[in-house]
Design brief:
The complex is a heterodimer of chains A (111) and B (113). Chain A has 111 residues and is mainly β. Chain A contains no helices and eleven strands. In chain A, the strands form two sheets. In chain A, strands 2, 4, 5, 9, 10 and 11 form a six-stranded mixed sheet that branches. A five-stranded antiparallel sheet of chain A has the order 1-3-8-7-6, with no helix packed on it. Chain A is globular, with a radius of gyration of 13 Å. With 113 residues, chain B is an all-beta fold. In chain B, strands 2, 4, 5, 6, 9, 10 and 11 form a seven-stranded mixed sheet that branches. In chain B, strands 1-3-8-7 form a four-stranded antiparallel sheet, with no helix packed on it. In chain B, strand 7 and strand 8 form a beta hairpin. Classes of the chains: A mainly beta (111), B mainly beta (113).
Chain lengths: 111, 113
């Protein structure tokens, strides 16, 4: 039973437009949510996070939104750039600082 | 970048042989983790450590053991490798509960034939 799900395995957007990546979770005890970016043959890189007591966190072109009632979070990238093409994982923190990851969404930004 | 290295980076081994993967950090972080990444599953936690000699199981611990005799090193052992353990293995570190973020090493691609 997957506690964190990314229902879109891939997403394609045009350079300069907005990319929206979505993530759903089932465990209401998660207290922290994170997004990671992964290039091929590299380890995941931390991108942005949000505490469960907030509904928005922004860092440059990246904004994460949290809707606790819907158990849904999203990552917005504006404007999208070709270098943003990667696999994006959402993760949720539970007990003991353990992260549960979604299956990932491959983002392709076309020039 | 966080100072995390993994060795080896690539390994091919035969079914039934023992394999040990090493994770080394230079950040003096308390928490260390081993994950495996498989298509469609994201990253799944195998084992983690919350201090020297303190370890616990994760979601997919069967067939794996770990050891941490020094703060900087966390070893993952496959006692008798199976083809289902073919995967990419990532080590991660974290400073503590307040931090939230985990920082990942470059990964080890393991193929069990």
């Amino acid at each position: 039973d997957q506690q964190v799900k990314q229902n879109s395995p891939s997403l394609s957007v045009q350079e300069g437009r907005i990319s929206i990546l979505n993530c759903d979770y089932t465990n209401s005890m998660f207290d922290y949510f994170l997004w990671y970016k992964k290039y091929p043959a590299e380890g995941p890189t931390f991108l942005i996070s949000i505490s469960s007591i907030k509904d928005k966190n922004e860092d440059g072109r990246f904004t994460v939104f949290l809707n606790k009632s819907a158990k849904h979070l999203s990552l917005h990238i504006v404007p999208s750039q070709p270098g943003d093409s990667a696999v994006y994982f959402c993760a949720a923190r539970g007990a003991g600082n353990m992260l549960t990851f979604g299956g990932g969404t491959r983002l392709m930004v076309k020039p | 970048d966080a100072g995390i290295t993994q060795s080896p980076r690539h390994k091919v081994t035969e079914t039934g042989t023992p394999v040990t993967l090493r994770c080394h950090q230079t950040e003096n972080h308390r928490y260390m983790y081993w994950y495996r990444q498989d298509p469609g599953h994201g990253l799944r936690l195998i084992h983690y450590s919350y201090g020297v000699k303190d370890t616990d199981k994760g979601e997919v611990s069967d067939g794996y053991s770990v050891s941490r005799s020094k703060t900087e090193d966390f070893l993952l052992t496959l006692e008798s490798a199976t083809s289902s353990q073919t995967s990419v293995y990532f080590c991660a570190i974290s400073a503590g509960l307040a931090a939230g973020e985990q920082y990942f090493g470059p990964g080890t691609r393991l193929t069990v034939t």
